[in-house]
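Encode chain A's predicted structure.
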Amino acid sequence: MALEETGISGTIHMFRHTFGATFMKEIGRTDELSKYLSHADIETTKIYAHFAQDYMKETTDKLDKAQRDKQ
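Encoded structure for chain A:
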């Protein structure tokens, strides 16, 4: 198996989940992520879009600040 040959521990599912969560945190485009993960149903992709409450608050705060700065 490829993972064994590299010496990396984990499962393919763990790496897919990490990739999906990181992609959503950095890019935030569920439609694009669904293509990378080859999901036919967007609801399946949403499983990978888990966010910690702190991250969601941080993002909301940034959006609020950008809107205030614009005015």
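The mean pLDDT is 78.
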